[in-house]
Write a structure and sequence with these properties.
There is one protein chain. This protein has helices spanning about 5, 10-25, 30-55, 85-105, 115-135, 135-145, 150-160, 165-190, 200, 210-225, 235-240, 245-270, 270-275, 280-295, 300-320, 325-355, 370, 375-385, 395-405, 410-435, 450-470, 475-490, and strands at about 65-75, 80-85. With about 500 residues, it is mainly α. A two-stranded antiparallel ribbon has the order 1-2.
């Protein structure tokens, strides 16, 4: 039930622009210590606001809630319009949760240009939150496109030895996709009565050929962001070179925005084209699941292994979305959230051990559970969650996607099962090589276990691994009206 005073405030604007306003104060802070605590405090306030939105969200309706609307450029039909439904409120919460975790993860890891780094974290947080709230296509595009700048800086300035190459590759891939996205937006604008209002565009019926062309332009943009094979090659380079916080943001939030684009635009606005291209999307998703898993199986660099595993896991999400079944779409959205939790946690734990050993070479590790028992326990749980073991969050989404796919495309579903088996192989292999056996890294026996700051990062993620795995009902209740409405728009069916 909605808390009354929340509806009287421009709460979404506060949530979005609080980090952006905070950027202006960062240069005037007196010390690095003050910068860290200021950034953490701002993003923790944002997290509390996002939590309040989630708790006060009315799950009995599919209507947009906490709507704010102001005329922006009336001559062009552009408005400042915000609102959230059951899908976007969940990802506002995930984004806000990972925001303050990124600050803690960077507490000691980032030493040079700390003010600039924290300013980039605040800026990208603001822009990501704006993407999930925007109900005007022009406003959405502004947030979507502007995210490239702080992410480019995070990789290009604070990344590894090949950071410039990885940053340029990330920027060029995503910019190219975004330009095609803009073309599709303009087509909808002119064909839809010169409006950018997303809800109004959902009520317009476009002829099939136009839908096909717009779907393809959107597909390329969203496929780069997901990323889908064959537009995935920027991701491993970006992950390997990015600092820990950058990898958490990439895996936890940015990859989800491609899938969110399918949910917000392709399925409800272009339903006929979505059905027309459904088989192609299922095939591409199945290829991503198996191909990404095989690439992960061949890796010796920890970050590359998790990066390629993300391609495989995101394949389950796009597969579920284009089954047009209740289980498939519900599982896809749950898997979007769950992947943000588990893969964000894995990149966090890779970063923590890298700070201690300065190595990402999997064969160089061994026996880390003896040197860092608490670290080993947490990492084991997150690996099991990524493996979709029953009782963890990964299982719920994955089993729903597979159950929704069987009967629609048995070959794609079979590829999903094969991908799950491959995931078990490379994740168990990672567990064995890193945590078991003799200690191989010189001095590894003397490394310290998780400290209080690192536990504060890990515990919330651990809670959601088991909460979603054992009792996902509260989150399903939030999603159900929105996804029922989505299915009615695309298929005429309900959950």
């Amino acid at each position: 039930m909605t808390i009354s005073f929340i509806t009287e405030l421009p709460v979404l604007s506060i949530l979005i622009f609080l980090p952006a306003i905070a950027v202006l104060f960062v240069p005037f802070l007196p010390s690095n210590h003050a910068v860290r605590w200021f950034t953490f405090s701002i993003l923790m306030i944002d997290f509390l606001i996002a939590t309040l939105l989630l708790v006060s969200f009315d799950n009995s309706t599919a209507q947009m809630q906490f709507v704010e609307s102001r005329s922006w450029v009336p001559s062009l039909g552009i408005s400042y319009k915000l609102g959230i439904d059951g899908v976007s409120v969940l990802f506002l919460f995930l984004t806000a949760l990972l925001g303050w975790i990124c600050v803690l993860a960077s507490w000691n890891a980032i030493a040079k240009r700390l003010k600039e780094f924290m300013a980039c974290l605040l800026a990208i947080q603001s822009l990501m939150l704006g993407v999930f709230c925007a109900l005007d296509l022009f406003l959405f595009y502004v947030f979507w496109e502007a995210m490239l700048v702080p992410m480019y800086l995070i990789i290009g300035i604070w990344g590894g030895n090949n950071r410039i190459y990885a940053a340029f590759k990330f920027f060029l891939y995503t910019l190219a996709g975004s330009l095609l996205f803009l073309v599709g937006i303009l087509v909808l604008y002119f064909e839809g009565g010169r409006t950018f209002d997303i809800l109004a565009l959902m009520d317009i019926s476009y002829e099939l050929n136009l839908q096909k062309w717009v779907f393809v332009s959107f597909l390329i943009a969203f496929a780069v962001k997901v990323p889908m094979v064959p537009m995935h090659t920027w991701l491993p380079d970006a992950h390997v070179q990015a600092p820990t916080a950058g990898s958490i943001i990439l895996a936890g939030v940015l990859l989800k925005m491609g899938a969110y684009g399918f949910i917000r635009f392709s399925l409800p606005i272009l339903p006929d084209a979505s059905h027309y291209f459904a088989e192609l999307m299922q095939i591409l998703s199945a290829v991503a699941i198996v191909y990404g898993g095989l690439l992960a199986l061949a890796q010796k660099d920890i970050k590359k292994l998790i990066a390629y595993s993300s391609i495989s896991h995101m394949g389950f999400i796009t597969l579920g979305l284009f089954t047009f079944t209740s289980n498939g779409i519900t599982g896809a959205v749950l898997q979007m959230f769950n992947h943000g939790i588990t893969t964000g946690a894995l990149f966090l734990f890779i970063g923590l051990v890298y700070e201690r050993t300065h190595s990402r070479d999997i064969p160089a590790y061994g026996g880390m559970i003896k040197a860092m028992p608490l670290y080993g326990i947490f990492l084991s749980i997150f690996l099991l969650a990524s493996m979709a073991v029953p009782g963890t969050n990964g299982f719920v989404g994955e089993i729903l996607v597979l159950s929704g796919t069987f009967g629609v495309n048995n070959w794609a579903a079979s590829a999903g099962v094969l991908g799950a088996l491959i995931a078990a192989a490379y994740l168990l292999g990672l567990y064995r090589q890193m945590l078991l056996g003799p200690i191989r890294i010189p001095g590894a026996a003397k490394v310290w276990d998780l400290n209080k700051r690192e536990l504060c990062c890990a515990l919330p993620l651990l809670i959601f691994v088991f909460w979603f795995g054992l009792y996902p009902k509260p989150f399903l209740n939030i999603l159900r009206p929105t996804l029922t409405n989505l299915l009615e728009q695309t298929l005429g069916a309900g959950l």
